[in-house]
Each structure stands twice: as C-alpha cells, then as structure tokens.
Amino acid sequence: MNTIAIIGGGASGMMAAIFAARKGAKVLLLEQNDRLGKKILVTGNGRCNYTNTYQDAFCYRSEQPDFITRVLDQFPAEKVITFFRELGIYPKDRNGYLYPFSDQASAIRDVLEQEVYRLGVDVRTGISCTGIQKTKERFSLQTSHGSLTVDQVILCNGSKAAPSTGSDGSGYALARQLGHQIIPVLPALCALHCTGKHFRAIAGVRAQGKVSLFVDGELTAADTGELQLTAYGISGIPVFQISRYASKALYEQKEVIAMLDFLPEYSVDEVKILLKERANRQPEKTAEQFFTGLFHEKLAAVWLKFTKIKKEKLCSDFTDADIQRLAWMIKEFKSPVIKTNSYEQAQICCGGVDTTQINPETMESRLVPGLYFAGELVDVDAICGGYNLTWAWASGYVAGQSAASA
C-alpha cells in the first residue's frame, strides 16, 4: 500500500487526509503546531464562516481564474454543507453566510480532527518539513525529527498570513525545491495605510460607503459596505475585499489611490441638491453644525478643513462653490495608499504556487508526478464570506481523492 504524506494539518490538509483515508490509502499527516487546525479557530471572529450559499467566479481570484472553477465544480458548496452535516455540523444561515449552529469555530476543527483520527490517519504534530526530494518513484522528506520516505506528497502548508497560527510560508520553499514557480506572495484581506495627517483626526469613525481603488489612474476594484477609518488609513470589509489589488500594485511600484464615497447611492449633482436644501432649511446653523445627524462630526471637521470653509460660517452664507467643494469631499475623498498591513494582520495572502503547473482535475503537479497541492499555498485567494475556506475544502478533497486513486 502506498503511503501519502500530507504536510500541513490545517483546513485543506485535514480535508485531504480524510478523503485519502476514505479511499483506503495509508496517510501520514505532519503538522508543526501542537494540534491540528489552529488557524480555523480564528476564522469568522471565532465563529467560522465555513462556506457561502452564493457562489460566483467573482468571489475568487487567481492569475488563472478558470483553474478555480474546475476545482470547485468537483466539490461545490452544496457538497461542503452535506459533508459537514454528516460530521455533525448543522448550518446557521446568515444571509447565505454559513456558520456552525453552535457559533463556535472550534466545532469545525473538532469534527475534522475527530474524523481524521477515526479513519486511522497517522498524525504527527510538532514536526516540520524542511526539505523534499524526488528519488526515482518516491519522495524523501527531511523533517525536524529525521528523514521519511513516502510514495506521494500533498503540500498543504498554507501561506504567510497570520504567522501566530503557524503559517510561516515554508511550503513555498518546498515547492521551489521541486521546480515550481511561485507567484509573488503578498498580504490580502487586510487594511490599507494611506498618507495624510487627517487620518488621526478621523480615527475610529465607521461609515457606510464605497471604496474605489485606482492603480496608475485606472479604476481597478471597488466595494461597498461599512468603512472603518483608522489613525493610519482605511479598514473594514470593503477595504479587505480590494486589498489584494493594492498589494500587487504596490509590489509593482505603481501609484495606488483609494477613493471613498460616503453617499454612493447619490450622484454628485444629487448630493449638491441635498446639501443646498439642507443649508436652506437651517440657515442659522454654522458650518460646524451643518452635517450633524448626517455624517460623523470628525469627518465633517476634516472636510471643512480641506475645503477651507470656516466652521463659524453660517449656512445662509454658503456659496455655490462651498456646496460644490463639500459635495466632492463626500463623493471623492481621495488618499494615496503607501502600504498594506503586514502578514501578521492579514487574514490571507494572494499569490502562491503557479496554477499553470498544477492539473485542476487532480491538484497534481504537472512537473513532478506524485506531488499534489491544496489550500492557500496555491495561487488562489478569495473575498471575505467563507470563500477561502470553501477553496480549502474543495482543493483538499480533490488532492486527497486523486492521490489515493493514483
């Protein structure tokens, strides 16, 4: 019986182990942490949004988008839901975002771990893999506990994001040792750092709005939702969703501008009308009081400073130029982006093992027979909402099944 070594006991690694073992393979699962699935515990703010009923190609990103579809089609969200239900996880549906009914991320980790052990997988924790070689028909692994020889290998080491959970990027080095190309690995699903001292003045403000990302003057990505303004820049789910494009552009030394729109449902002309009507209804109020009840006072103060409108100025004295400048502040509040948050604060990474060198039907290397990949190590990332875990489940399933069937 062939032995399959799975390096990395996270979401995709446990998934690969389960489906390889269910096929009757002898499975060895190596994990450098003291327990499996540590990163799962911090997903979904500790509740684990493990998949989403809404699935669209837009939700996933890669240099080769078609690759993702061919993998996900083999284990779509419906199968994810059924798989976890069979393990005892009943879904709590929040507008398509699925969580375990207990709202505990540990439940997802625990049922996977229980299934791994039930199937007789040889789990070895506290052991890291430092080297890999292909010798004739087998693989030689150099680990922190000595050498191992196995028939097949599935690399599920994860990325560099959230290193406190054990993600150290070691899988990229192993892939390179066997000739694989790595698309630059960069932080994603993270906050953005912007220039401007005014951010300290608006730190802590949350507002509904739209963030648009311009790279070298061209609109590259946009998203709408609750924006969070920080002392260093911008955060919140909409910012996370577009952050991978900022990471790539900054890596390529391109100019990156973030534009915030605090009334995306209105055109500029409609905002001007709204502001004029507001000023006419409250002529005795000052500019400092003008936005009370509409926008946060910290935002209003910054806008007045940028437009050079004195806070003591009465609304009755507002000129058309004042209204126009304020309208543009609301609709196009621009700031240069200088960097992203680090790997420590990023939820995931973009980039990874080049998918052109992987067969999407099997997740097997096109360069090295018997070598497979799964999870975040591969050049696939996704937006918030359970999509990155959906990729982990699907790619782990395909890799495990395929390796065991080879």
UniProtKB/TrEMBL annotation:
Species this protein is from: [Ruminococcus] torques
Pfam families, sorted: HI0933_like, HI0933_like_1st
Record-given protein name: Tricarballylate dehydrogenase
Domain of life, source organism: Bacteria
UniProt keyword annotation of S-adenosyl-L-methionine present: no
Keyword hit for Flavoprotein: yes
PANTHER family to which the protein is assigned, alphabetical: OS12G0638800 PROTEIN
SUPFAM superfamilies: FAD/NAD(P)-binding domain, HI0933 insert domain-like
RsdA/BaiN/AoA(So)-like Rossmann fold-like domain location: 3-401
Cofactor: FAD
Domain RsdA/BaiN/AoA(So)-like insert: 187-348
UniProt-listed InterPro entries: BaiN-like, BaiN-like_dom_sf, FAD/NAD-bd_sf, RsdA/BaiN/AoA(So)-like_dom, RsdA/BaiN/AoA(So)_Rossmann
Alphabetically ordered keywords of this record: FAD, Flavoprotein
